[in-house]
Amino acid sequence: MKQGNIIIKNASQLVTCSGHSAKKGEQMSDLSVIENGTVVITDGLITYVGKDADCPPLSDFPNHVIVEAEGKAVLPGFVDSHTHFIFGGYREEEFSWRMRGDSYMSIMEHGGGIHNTMTATRNASLEDLLESGRHRLDKMLAMGVTTVEGKSGYGMNKETELKQLEAMKALNKEHPVDIVSTFMGAHATPNEYKGRVDDFLDYMIKEVMPEVKDKNLAECCDIFCEKNVFDIEQSRRYLTAARDLGFKLKIHADEIVTLGGAELAAELKALSADHLLQASDKGIECLAGSNTVATLLPCTAFSLKEHYARGRHMIDMGCAVALATDLNPGSSFTNSIPLLFALACIYMQLSPEEAVTALTINGAAAIGKADKIGSIDVGKQGDLVILEYPSYKFLPYHIGMNIVEKVIKRGILFPSSNI
Ligand code: NIG
Ligand code: FE
Q1: Domain of residue 25, residue span
Q2: What pTM does this model have?
Q3: 94 within ligand 1 shell (Cβ under 6 A)
Q4: Which tens digits make up the pLDDT trace of 193-234?
Q5: Is the CB of 261 under 6 A from ligand 1?
Q6: 407 within a domain of the structure (yes/no)
Q7: Count of domains forming the chain
Q8: I need a surface site. Which of 296, 359, 395, 419 has the fewest CB within 10 A?
Q9: 60 CB burial (10 A radius; 0-12, 13-18, 19+)
Q10: In angstroms, rounded to a whole number, what is the distance separating the alpha carbons of residues 323 and 352?
């Protein structure tokens, strides 16, 4: 991957989010802002962070592009830690049905939903997936996302699960946005296994998961732990097998029904428990007492017209909260970072500071990368965004607008308007 040399000079706010692990509870309010700050990136890595006045003379840094950032806020690149961005087809008809009152789960139980996208993804060629995936990554980068997590899970057979993961591997090599891949073979049970959920899980655990590992196609493993999808015992079995093979764990937990997915995530030391709209008080307590990040996806609640997860309460209880878009063709066909900021602050009562932490260092922790990305610290990857406004507080306030002016990925400059 290309690496560059660049100096971002004299930002009105250098929002460092300094740290190397997830921030919990009150710590989420500390953004470690440096006024009139400068960052130097050399060979793609951050080599200086501090006051512009204390920075060594520019003559010490030959071959560095200089960017003046007076009147602008500079932040770490955003980490979108939960998406399903590789898929075939769309589900615009189902969206209309939902607006008329059909529920997400009833559409899925009648063969639509995830099954609909499974068929379209099985029918898509690798080239189709690369083309649509590339287009989605371009849009992410323009909104300041420098690392994204992407899941398989629309194959539900070996061939298509591997095709999705191969697509992400190829895109990771060619595109500036870094991709962290997650194997989600247990997303739903396909028709060929109807009524034989445990047999399907056995197939995924014995036939598919080891090959994903051998081919080094994913770092994490995820499951849709939900009523009428995979129950707690099945999820524990699948995730334990994944852990034994060396995968990091993530769980779609307590989204529609309170099942105890949050508790299971803490028990298994998962990187994250995601959704959590229906997480119980006990589940939230378990997360607060663990290193598992509570990843909240308010665009999904918005799109499904569900109650939002209790983000304010989770932070007050001491959880580490991350925010992600959940981009997928069904429950959240958006990867809008501006919308995500607005929903998190307006409907989940996160402060702008907490929302920034949730999309940077805590997003990085939710994919096991807080040592490399998610903050502006010396030694970390040179991934930054420059806003067109002087304060990070404009992120939720300028509702639905992309205020990212420039993106820097490993020291290479991408003006947002050119992406
Ligand atoms: O995170 N809830 C399960 N999985 C996805 C939706 C997948 C789909 O509807 O295609 C989610 O919301
Ligand atoms: Fe999801």
Answers
A1: 6-76+373-418
A2: 0.98
A3: no
A4: 999 999 999 999 999 999 999 999 999 999 999 999 999 999
A5: no
A6: yes
A7: 2
A8: 419
A9: exposed
A10: 12
